[in-house]
Queue: 2 jobs
Job 1
Amino acid sequence: MHPALQGLLTIVIGVGGCVGYFYFSNVLLDRVIFPARGRDMGRNINRANMVRPWLFLFPAIFALGLYLAYPVAETLRLSLTDRAAGGAFVGLANYQQMMAEPKFWEALRNNFMWLLIVPAAATGFGLLAAQLTDRIRWGNLAKSLIFMPMAISFVGAGVIWKLVYEQRPVDVEQIGVLNAIYLALGGAEPQTWMTIPLWNSIFLMVVLVWIQTGFAMVILSAALRGIPEETVEAAIIDGAGPFQIFFKIKVPQIMGTIMVVWTTITLVVLKVFDIVFAMTNGQWETQVLANYMFDKLFSANDWGVGSASAMIIMLLVTPILAWNVYNARKEMR
Amino acid sequence: MKHALMTGAAALALTASMAQAEQVTVFGPWLGPDQANVEKVLAGFAAASGHDVRYVGSDSFEQQVMVDAEAGSAPNVAAFPQPGLAAGMAARGFLTPLADGTGDWIRENYAAGQSWVDLGTYAGADGNKALYGFFYKIDVKSLVWYSPENFEDAGYEVPTTMEELKALTDQIVADGETPWCIGLGSGGATGWPATDWVEDMMLRTQPPEVYDQWVSNEIKFDDPRVIAAIEEFGAFARNDDYVAGGAGVVASTDFRDSPKGMFSSPPQCYMHRQASFIPAFFPEGNIVGEDSDFFYFPAYAGKDLGTPVLGAGTVWGITNENQAAHDLIAYLQTPKAHEDWMALKGFLTPYKGVNPDAFGDPTLRKMNDILLGATTFRFDGSDLMPGGVGAGSFWTGMVDYAGGKSAADVAAEIQSSWDALK
Amino acid sequence: MDNIAGSKSSLTWAVHISVAVLVFLWLFPTVGLFVSSFRTSDQIATSGWWKAMFPSVQNLQLRAKAPELQVETDGLYVIEGNLFAEDGRDQTEISVYGISSRAIDAFRPAETAELRKGGTITVEANGDYLMEHTEAFRGSRGQRVFVTAEIPPEFTLTNYDTVLGKDVVKRLVIYFAAAMIFAFVLRYVVRDRAGIMVAALPTSGGLALLLLLILVFGLSTGTVEGAQTGDSMAKAFFSTLTVTIPATIIPILVAAFAAYALAWMDFPGRALLIAIIVGLLVVPLQLALIPLLKLHLQVGIGKGYLGVWLAHTGFGLPLAIYLLRNYMAGLPRDIIENAKVDGATDFQIFVRIILPLSFPALASFAIFQFLWTWNDLLVAKVFLIDATGETTVMTNAIVELLGTRGGNWEILATAAFVSIAVPLIVFFAMQKYLVRGLLAGSVK
């Protein structure tokens, strides 16, 4: 039980430390530094209230700065230097080297394909599932079953889908579902799905769509419920059919939410590399940027190019970042 | 039992040096049964020296050791499956030179000692060459595995020349069966089994000097001689009639799965070319020498290149210096360290001072005979090339080749990735 | 009107059917894994898992007894027995058999085959065989016999014994049943009392009993021979818990305070800070690994639990702050203003009002972070797992298993299912909170 006890102890210390920090720093501020009494009472209260937000924010800002902002800056620096030459500044040489590699362009092309297909498919299926499950009694059960893949690790999902795509020689019975169906539908011989360029990328995307659809469904389902009854009723009275109601009334009403879901999944697509890593490791023209970066950083040990490709990913997420920031600021007003 | 062990250990500790007991961490690529084996050897060291030894294996050894070394949290001793990786680490100053006299010991006690010293000597961060790596545990790669009973059923004879092997291959096809099982899949390392094929073919079509020049890139990867060797491999792997499942599945079949086809009912193939470790992935209960056996991957009788053997091995280096790490390397120079693993499975050694009767398994002796009968012994070339090629573009290039790209295109791509590293 | 009602009901049917198809598609792959984990390697290799409920026709390679067991009577050497018994299998019906790998279906049961080395063998449909020869049989191994037989469906717990250690599943089931009964009894005992603590008593009592049983009686009765996993899986399980729980709680605390400040406190630069946090949501994690590991080692944290907690905290914070701020900003303004008028400090407002009201969002993020840390491999590999071998996590143990047992689907399926079992339980138990918090973050 040693590790369990140790874990328990550290939980107590960690949590106690956090609570203690917030409590005692507040006490310190109110009682010792700017006491709310005596001559400067009014001024002290004001000053304490100026400082307090930063007390509340400090641990978060510290951790964010250290764990996310600093690495971004460090990566930018690495992408402009050459480690073999003792960290000398080499300008854009790493970027040039990367641009000269066909694998990079393959990764970029695949990434764009992922960006087009996965968010669209996941949002589409999610919307469909949300609309359909809202209308039936066992809808909640159906929802949690569709949502379930969210809880499965990429390692687990990799094994699950490898079994689906498994192929056996032609004269042996197939144990992969996809090949069994393919043969039953009249396919000539079992296919090695993971090695057919283009198709294999699509089969990898299916895994991510499978995982993300539940997320889209849950959020869109709530948005659909938020549509005022009267709007829909008015449309029915006007003689609109169910499809018209859905596409002309409901979808436009929840467009904002659809965009949120779409961009969130886009972010996942840009960052995710586990699926590709586990199932093909970028072979057979399935490379994507995140896996390319991992390859360069940890296999080829070329930090310059690895960091450069990381910056490309950052560049690709920038529009979404800007859109997120713009929305956040709009909400503030 | 425990008591006896304790007193034995105490006695050994007394007889060993009175040096301070330290902790020594060993990081290696072995998992599963091999992990148990290496732990037995290390237990012997712990008992003899009194040090506290911990072994950790990892499936992604290459990445993990690099990340740890970069970050400064390296283990004390690492057992590299690829000398190229060790050389890279040495060049960045992550390895400590081995104690003085180690090189002399290797020269004296290992068969072809000088070549092992050369393979373990790298340039350090300061550019000075020194002995950084000690070879321990060798694999022979030029082996073809088969099921003797299936050969018997079909009336096939074990071929002794490449011409005979090719004739046998055609014979099996003519009989309506499939001769070979070939699988290149290996997760992140997919493609490496093909590099062994190409290297073996290189040794069977070109003199060893050309092989050495190829490995050091003195002759280019897209040299016609290299392309010819790749195509020799393609003659087997890209022929739909030769490979179980057709040429299309070669790249995606897991190398661990691939040999199982020889033992299925009915057999999906008759032969499988792979290194000495592969029986670990044969079906449960399969006994080498009974259910399965191997023969030397033969050379062309018409080429007069002798009997070349391709091999590999793990090179042990000190990644985080302490006295115990040096003691461990010294311990590996005792016959006991070798004989302990010889008594188990999957261990060959060039150490001349061991008692060959220590082999626990007659097939290991047979493999050692192949090793000793070699007129040329060459180390796995992809392990000697820079990591970006030998553990990168060479692998992926072979996958592309098995998938239908032309050998010339693949070779040119690998060469350009090599140029990019310079 | 009839017309409309009719089309309405057919539409309802269409909805039911489409939802059923969707659920089926989404569930199908996972069920495949689950079913496969209860099948033997032979079965997995020879028939699709969807046929697991039906008997399958398999080609088997069986062996007669070794020649050293032959019996000589009147100059006739005889070996006899049952092929299935020799292999430790249940008897089934043989349809055809053969003695050469080239012709595995050459003979019908009860037909006699000439052995190549002399002598004959006769195999009956039930697997009984009789080998006869006028000279002694030679060789070290028994005659190979290839049979084609219909193997009945069979499910086994062996795979779980191999991956987790002997009897772990059986014991877990027994302990769990005991805990359920105990919880049920508790609920009956306290049925008339009211209050939050009382309501939680049956569940927590049952959980406590479950833990107690595990601690007192243990889970495993030993490891299966040749399996390297029993012990290390249990260790990995506790290690994973040790990583997961603090890595879930600490970021919540830190984020809750920050989210309150961003939602309800006025200070210069607030909008900018929110924008930055939203921006940090998109940073790919891979690029943070090496700079941070270096930093950890420089300041002396090294590799270990502390490092991995801090890393998970850092990586989880943007989402936590974002979700919690959105939720808190939606709380009714007058409650907070009334409290301020009554003279409550920000700290008091936060602890007494905001935290309890934000429970759904907190729970939702907790589940998210739990799933993410439990399923994580990369962060653990870089910040936790070092060369001493003391620390590992479930995902890593499974990936290593994939490396050593790559082709063994039964082991892969079982290991993968074990790794997803805990997140699935947490997910199904807590999903209503997960959904609520998700909504807080995205729908306004």
Job 2
Amino acid sequence: MNHLWMTLRPYTMIAPALLVFLLFFIYPIGYMVYLSFHDWNFISPDKNFVGMNNYRALYDHPEFLQSVENTVIFTLLSVVITTVIALLLALWINKPTKLYGFVQGAIFSPHIISLVSIAMLWMWLMDPQYGLLNWLLELFGLPQSEWLASPDTALYSLVIVAIWKSVGFNTLILIAGLQSIPSYLYEAAELDQSSTFTSFLKITLPLISPTLFFLVIINVISSFQVFETIDIMTQGGPLNSTSTLVYFIYEYGFRFFQLGYASAAGVVLLIVLSIFTVLYFLLVSRRVHYQ
Amino acid sequence: MRIHQLFLKLLNVTSLVLIILIFATPFVWMAVTSVKSLSETITFPPVWIPETIRFENFTLAWESGPFFRYLVNSLIVTFSILILQFLTIVPAAYAFARYQFFADRTLFALTMITLMIPTQLIFLPVYLQFSSWGILDTHLALILPFAANAFGIFMLRQSFKQVPEELLEAARLDQASEWKIIYKIMVPMAKPTIITLLLFSFITHWNDYFWPLVMTTSDSSRTLPVGIAALTNVEGGVAWHIMMAGNMILVVPILIMFFFAQRQIIRAFVYTGVK
């Protein structure tokens, strides 16, 4: 009896958490894959099996292709620019004085603010008529921009907001990475009279690169999920120029009730995220291996 | 040489100030707009100092919808999630850290996989599931999926592993039950990690917009961020001063919290980011 309890005890301890994961994360994934092979509008009692039809229809759907393209552009731009700026900032403000501490706090602050507020605030800053940004542009004698109101600039405006929000978080993670580089390496480099640039290239960059790769992957994963700023600032417009994969799923699932179709788009997102997740786990296991 | 150094120092400080401005100005602009009159928001060039400070904008924003209800909903949802996460994470992390059992690695891998499944991926099937359970538009729909947290289990497991085994042996000799060991020894020793996790969860769910947006259809279960976002479609045109006043209500408490616990909050996010 006692032995049986000893065997079962660990399972009872993890059961509540595992139940949550199975019910609300693992099972829905399976259900979504199942739905993606069916035609269903939520109201009708029947789900008709349609095989690969939903996927074929996606492949021919200009709006879907556009939202994939938008997602890729958004992700590429925001991830690359955020990472580069964050690296430069991290090298620069990685100092223990009060002033630098304050700068670190300031650049990090957007990360803990609700995206709702960030979206509404930037909508106001980017207002084509009365916005502060156009006033600034005018102040410096630059041409004003339509920002979110034009299909040519809307997506880039969202990229700016994404960078503003996440650059501080990225910088602080890189600073943590920089601080874990043993200082004797730099002292040795100094003895060898190597230049700052050489020691950056030979010491900092190789040792920070696992953190950089890690950041790139989590940034890619989170950029693929972007929703809040789009829903509040543009609703995918103008002319579909800012609709992303998640927004497409949301619209087709919740506005048009084409559940099979939306699920197929969900499976596409799942595949993309899985690729990056596998990369992430390979990286994490590699890092553990080194230590 | 000295002039050269002075110049560099000046350049450095100027650039630092510029960076602070890039991040602080939007918040300052939010605060300034929130006490303006309607006409002051629609002038170009913009007005920096409003003629009269109109605190009534906050009342107007607050009374433009059932914001007290939203606030209560936000508090109920966020704190229920925190309590449930504490209750599910602690024993699970202990089991993964301290026991060897059949399929332990598989179950841990399963837990880690959920870490990478975003809510933006599973909202549709979960919505359908909740609709068949009849719990759409209730607090439950906003709480249940977050009753456990894979990341929390991962982190707490790490800190539970660091508690020396001798301490547990001694407690077991004293006939302490496993539950007593967990809550009298493990939890107090892992207190910093637990506080970090709860802080992280609090900010995440307090700010969350996506999940309540898709799971609620009425004011009875909507949370503060959804209510504030609805200020964008107030009838009678865009009222930036009211919108910014509403957002001040959402932002200021978090910024005050950040001011007092900056070190811990940054640690919570950087720590949870890097692992």
